[in-house]
Specification:
single chain; about 240 residues; alpha/beta; Rossmann fold; 5-stranded parallel beta sheet; 8 helices; about 40% helix; globular; binds flavin mononucleotide
Amino acid sequence: MKSADIKKILILNGSPKREHSSTINVTKAFVDGIVKETNASVEYINLADLNIKPCTGCLSCWGRTEGECVIKNDDIPMIKKKIEECDIFIESYPLFFFGMPGTMKVFTDRMLSMMKTYMGQKSPENGESFHGIRNPRDQKFIVITSCAYTEYGPVYEPLIKQYDCICGKGNYLMLFSPQLKTLMDLNNEAKINKYLAKFNEAGAEFGKNLELSNETYELLKKPPFTEGAYKIFLNNFWTNEREGR
Ligand SMILES: Cc1cc2nc3c(=O)[nH]c(=O)nc-3n(C[C@H](O)[C@H](O)[C@H](O)COP(=O)(O)O)c2cc1C
């Protein structure tokens, strides 16, 4: 796949806050950067607006059919078609309790039909996907996620492990944005713009090379505040909340 092959970008916004999501600001900055290099069309979909029924666990999609889900009367067939047709699929969401938000998990469970049937294999030693995709296409998969904690490392370990098992190491790109909500709440336009500009430039780099250099990747993970300053902000925030200011 080359940069010129990027024609369609689909973004699934998994924050319950829809367009008021902090994460979506970072995602938009990154996507705008990709578009600068590729001119791709962009579609944003709010997961909270979709009708998605939970997986019934019947495993029909792995047994009786080749990847067909028995649930036909919700939005999964529509979104699955869009995922299959796009060149870059982006999931954008906040970290909830060290994992993806519940609605996102319900959506992810329904994607089981896109994976190959489990045949008793043990975990692959080389970091490949546990199952493998049923009909793989040359496309990119990116997860952009924000959280409140200062360190991205320990808090994201369970989520990274989950995506490694599902997609295989190296088959997806996960971008982290720690301390994001506080940055947005402070309304310091200059600081916000500087932070978003990093993601915008990184998006342009991704649009051009379809990957990020280690240097860029490390830069994006850096929290906007020092540990000391962040503790003060949090202390003020919770005090104000308690006092109803
Ligand atoms: C139910 C819930 C669980 C959360 N769990 C975590 C967590 O485990 N680690 C963390 O750093 N932040 C956690 N957060 C904070 C959000 O991830 C953070 O505020 C995020 O930036 C909000 O993004 P959004 O505005 O796009 O929804 C949690 C927030 C909620 C509401």
